[in-house]
Amino acid sequence: MVETPLQRVLRLSGKIDPKYIALFNPNHDDHGRFGVGSNAPTQSAGGHGPGAARGNVDATKAAKIAENNPEGFTVNPGNLSMVKSGYVVALDNKLSQRVSDAEWKANKVAIAREYLGKVRDAAKTNSQVKLGGWHSTADKQFVLDHVEVYPNSAKGKSAALAVGVARDQQAIFHIDTMTEIPTGGTGGKSGKSP
After folding, report:
1. Range of the domain at 83
2. Which residue among 65, 116, 168, 177 is buried most deeply as judged by most CB within 10 Å?
3. Do residue 23 and residue 60 come from a single domain?
4. The model's pTM
5. Three-class SS string for the chain?
6. Per-residue pLDDT tens digits for 56-93
7. How many domains does the chain have?
């Protein structure tokens, strides 16, 4: 049996040096885990292929964020860090996904994976795109949205309101106070598109 360079390093040193992991396994982190290194392929929709491990972990995390923040959440699609300040406006009513409580309960990770993939794809051409959502107790459903965040300032609020009106949104959301600000729109029911 022929010994690979990595096997030789391991045999001689008794441990794997992170530089060898990076050299021979560029899609692994310093501990040899696949799909989490800086060069790891990202996962869009679906659960197969080289980025599937990361996609499943991120989908599980996104589903937990949604469940733990039913009043509303906005996250950066790349690392799923919470956006903590600003005015949130949905991009387009046609991009929203509404999921019944029963469907969410049965398929939340798959739904989160697919929608997160769509948001990540959109963020490739518009770096301002974030993943937003909330739970509508009145409609008994989770709502997932492609959103943009405007600064927490008078100018940011004005811009967010103007964009919300132009996009026929019913409201924008102020993260800092966790309140909706009505825009007078119909939420897409008028047939008006942005």
Report:
1. 53-182
2. 116
3. no
4. 0.68
5. CCCCHHHHHHHHHCCCCHHHHHHHCCCECCCCCECCCCCCCCCCCCCCCCCHHHHHHHHHHHHHHHHHCCCCEEECCCCCCECCCCEEEECCHHHCEEEEHHHHHHHHHHHHHHHHHHHHHHHCCCCCCEEEEEEECCCCEEEEEEEEEECCCHHHHHHHHHHHHHCCCCEEEECCCCEEEECCCCCCCCCCCC
6. 789 999 999 999 999 899 999 999 999 999 999 999 87
7. 2
